[in-house]
């Protein structure tokens, strides 16, 4: 009996990763360092065929090699989900309902679901984990989220990185964190699922604001003050929407994730905001970028949620006005200056 148990322990963990972008590719690279088998669903069949032939993503992190003994690409989602223990969602939040439209509760039964998405479901204004729970009946104890501070591009280069795994279930968070730990990445578990998820959503909006101000010619001094004020906005919002007395917003899963997204050259939200500050329209900026800036969709959701709570969030309001009310960035940031201190 002991020998049988030992053999079972050595079997690889079966994981499905849904999404073909840079973050999905980075997560697969990290997981491949450990004892796993990964079924990777991508929307485009041409990408699936390319990966099967050349063992790397043709569109994102193209220099990152993939281990063909551990990673198998799929075009049919049902095939990718068959027999797995974990489902990792790495599709942009706005596209999640369409991507999963042919699935039902059976596909998620007895599986742990991990959201690697840092956005909200538009129109419904729901966190991804809330939407998954509502649509597919996944219990909270089987849900967790991946937070930073971590950029896919640095993972591809195997630079030392850190991740925060949050779940209401300590076992769920710790088990998944153990699948990520490797020579160039450390993952740790915390229990604040909704605090981490909301912070991950809002930090993309703040990064967008940083990009706008940079595009307008503001310097590091102004950005430092804005990011400091942004942390206060996040604190006020979380206290109103999902209060938690043991939450430490100065830890890496909150403040660290905000800082890396606000300042990094790899931040797509900062890049998007920079284009807006330089005079691009929303549509032209979206067309020029090859990746989705989650902050664009998220700011509308957070703005509408906050209409119920009335939290003072001048940075969120400024970004919303610029993107959705067609306010001029120069005048809106000029107004914002008076709020910051």
TrEMBL record:
**Where does the UniProt annotation locate this protein?**
Cytoplasm
Annotated pathway, please? Membrane lipid metabolism; glycerophospholipid metabolism
Q: At which positions is sn-glycerol 3-phosphate bound? A: 118, 148, 203, 257, 267-269
User: Which keywords appear in this protein's UniProt record, sorted alphabetically?
Assistant: Cytoplasm, Lipid biosynthesis, Lipid metabolism, NAD, NADP, Nucleotide-binding, Oxidoreductase, Phospholipid biosynthesis, Phospholipid metabolism
Question: Where is NADPH bound in this sequence?
Answer: 22-23, 43-44, 60, 118, 152, 268, 292, 294
What are the binding positions for NAD(+) in this chain?
95, 152, 268
Q: What is its main location?
A: cytoplasm
Function, as annotated, reads: Catalyzes the reduction of the glycolytic intermediate dihydroxyacetone phosphate (DHAP) to sn-glycerol 3-phosphate (G3P), the key precursor for phospholipid synthesis.
The name this protein goes by in its record:
Glycerol-3-phosphate dehydrogenase [NAD(P)+]
Q: What is the originating organism of this protein? A: Pseudarcicella hirudinis
């Amino acid at each position: 009996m002991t020998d049988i148990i030992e053999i079972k322990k050595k079997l690889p963990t079966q994981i499905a990763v849904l999404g073909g972008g840079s973050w999905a590719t980075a997560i697969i690279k990290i997981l491949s360092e450990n004892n796993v088998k990964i079924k990777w669903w991508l929307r485009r069949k041409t990408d699936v065929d390319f990966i099967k032939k050349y063992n790397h993503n043709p569109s994102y992190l193209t220099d990152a090699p993939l281990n063909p003994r551990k990673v198998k690409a799929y075009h049919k989602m049902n095939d990718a989900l068959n027999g797995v223990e974990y489902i990792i969602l790495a599709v942009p939040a706005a596209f999640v309902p369409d991507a999963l439209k042919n699935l039902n509760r059976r596909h998620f039964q007895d599986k742990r679901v991990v959201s690697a998405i840092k956005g909200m479901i538009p129109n419904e204004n729901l966190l991804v984990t809330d939407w998954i729970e509502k649509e597919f009946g996944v219990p909270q104890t089987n849900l967790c989220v991946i937070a930073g501070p971590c950029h896919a591009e640095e993972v591809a280069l195997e630079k030392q990185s850190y991740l925060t795994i949050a779940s209401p279930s300590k076992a769920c968070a710790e088990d998944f964190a153990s699948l990520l730990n490797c020579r160039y990445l450390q993952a740790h578990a915390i229990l604040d699922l909704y605090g981490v998820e909301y912070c991950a959503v809002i930090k993309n909006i703040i990064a967008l604001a940083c990009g706008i101000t940079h595009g307008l010619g503001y310097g590091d001094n102004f950005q430092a003050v804005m990011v400091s004020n942004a942390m206060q906005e996040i604190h006020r919002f979380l206290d109103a929407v999902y209060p938690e007395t043991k939450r430490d917003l100065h830890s890496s899963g909150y403040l660290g994730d905000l800082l890396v997204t606000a300042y990094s050259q790899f931040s797509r939200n900062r890049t998007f905001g920079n284009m807006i500050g330089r005079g691009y329209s929303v549509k032209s900026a979206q067309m020029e970028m090859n990746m989705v800036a989650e902050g664009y969709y998220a700011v509308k959701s957070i703005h509408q949620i906050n209409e119920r709570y009335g939290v003072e969030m001048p940075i969120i309001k400024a970004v919303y006005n610029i993107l959705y009310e067609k306010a001029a960035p120069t005048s809106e940031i000029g107004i914002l200056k008076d709020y910051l201190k």
